[in-house]
Amino acid sequence: MDMKKRIHLELRNRTPSDVKELVLDNCRSNEGKIEGLTDEFEELEFLSTINVGLTTVAHLPKLNKLKKLELSDNRISGGLEVLAEKCPNLTHLNLSGNKIKDLSTIEPLKELGTLKSLDLFNCEVTNLNEYRDNVFKLLPQLTYLDGYDKDDKEAPDSDAEVYAEGLDDDEEDEDDVDDEEYDEDAAPGDEEEEEGEDEEEENEEEEEEDLSGEEEEEDDLNDREVDDEDDEGEQLLQIHKCTRLMLFFIVHCFCFS
């Protein structure tokens, strides 16, 4: 797919002025130049043209808001002086894997006063003696060269930083929501404790009911035993009375006979 068709595809029914990021990696540029990209992309902040066969950036349109430009794995060997004019606010430039052989090729980049990060991996210029020191001297505005600063401290991953910031924001939002919930209701832990206490109280009440039921049954049994004892006593008394009457009757009959 050529670059013009790829740009049309990437627009997705948007107008060029609505586009802030444009990725054209691995498409094909005719005659090694940028095609289909115009000044209408006035809001563009990120442009990636990795491995598209570029030999020059001379046809880059005026992109005042462009901050990050990916040109790695092309065949660019010079002509970088146009970047200061076309992309005056550029902060990140990746030229890795191009045909840059000496420091004079990147010297025009000193006109990019906002440039903070430059990548030249897999370029012949990196094989020069004291390459890093000389580049930092040539481009004093640089903070990072090939991912490291002057003290060999690794540069943070900008994408990871943005992602982390997004996570922090989400976490803060979640914390705010949680705080509001805590203000309105009890904390989950407290709810669990309350539920546990309620269950214990229910269990205690059930145990008390069981005990009271058992006590009532025992009382009923005791009452029945007492009633039975009373009945037996009355029966014995009746028998005793009957026995006495019979004895009295026998004695009386014996005396009169």
Automatic annotation (TrEMBL):
Record-level Gene Ontology MF annotations: histone binding
One example of a Gene Ontology biological process annotation: regulation of apoptotic process
Species of origin: Haplochromis burtoni
Main localization of the protein described in the UniProt heading: nucleus
InterPro entries referenced in this protein's UniProt entry, alphabetically: AN32, Leu-rich_rpt, LRR_dom_sf, U2A'_phosphoprotein32A_C
Acidic residues bias locations: 157-232
UniProt feature, compositional bias: Basic and acidic residues: 147-156
Top-level taxon of origin: Eukaryota
Protein name in UniProt: Acidic leucine-rich nuclear phosphoprotein 32 family member
U2A'/phosphoprotein 32 family A C-terminal domain boundaries: 128-146
GO terms for cellular component: nucleus
Similarity comment text for this entry: Belongs to the ANP32 family.
Coiled-coil annotated residue ranges, if any: none
Keywords: Leucine-rich repeat, Nucleus, Repeat
Annotated function: Multifunctional protein that is involved in the regulation of many processes.
Region feature Disordered, mapped onto this chain: 147-232
Localization annotation: Nucleus
